[in-house]
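Mods, move this if it's the wrong board.
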Amino acid sequence: MNPTSRKKKIWTVVRTAFFVLILWTIWGNVTVKTTVWDIKDNSIPEGFDGYRIAQISDLHNAEFGENHAKLLSILEKEQPNIIVITGDLVDANHTDMDIAVSFAEQATQIAPCYYVTGNHEAWLGERYDDLEKRLKDCGVNVLRNQAERITANGDSVWLMGVDDPDFAESGIFDLSSCIIAAKAEHTGNEAEYKILLSHRPELFHTYVKEGIHLVFCGHAHGGQFRLPFIGGLVAPNQGIFPQYDSGIYQEKDTTMVVSRGIGNSIIPVRLNNRPEVVIAVMHT
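Not the wrong board. Structure tokens:
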């Protein structure tokens, strides 16, 4: 093969690879993956064996399908017992409360919904009060350093939710105090199974210290750009090569589920990092 032909062949391969990468990136930003995690823990009450929790995180006002049709279709198919929304339902940079509330209202027709705030809700300032009222009006259970008992087949667990740190008026945030406040909502045995909704995965060691059994978080956006064999490249409040970007993390008796989320914010494009709906299936 002469040098000219070889050069043409190389350029053809490069252009083809570049075109495939563009298609892969587009597909990876406009489709949603369902990720199923099996949560096995002897502390889970028998009545919750097979209990299904759907997690939606970091929607950031995104829509998949007209009026959220694709996202809602996934939730209907998975038949969750409850749906948990772990913050950043809206985006403070281009807030559309109608889109956020429309999704939440339709999601409550599929299963009971529980919601905690993210940093973007905190950044709304006084506008957040309107969002919270509208969410409550359409049946969403908003947990702000609070807890509720949920039941299944005669057994019960505690579901707690804490505010995002950016709601701290003094600028000083004490997550342990928030969790303690949520625990104070019930008078049950400390050993009872406890599920926590919190936006921030980087606070994992506090969840472990406070004896939480199962935590659902978001915020990291999967590291935004995911590198093969390495993972996420950058995440808010964790920086480069974040430790907690996606998936399951375990320490002592605590399991943390970190969703890659669905929407985008400051960085508008994901790479090798499809948006996801998480389904956690509990097993005794």
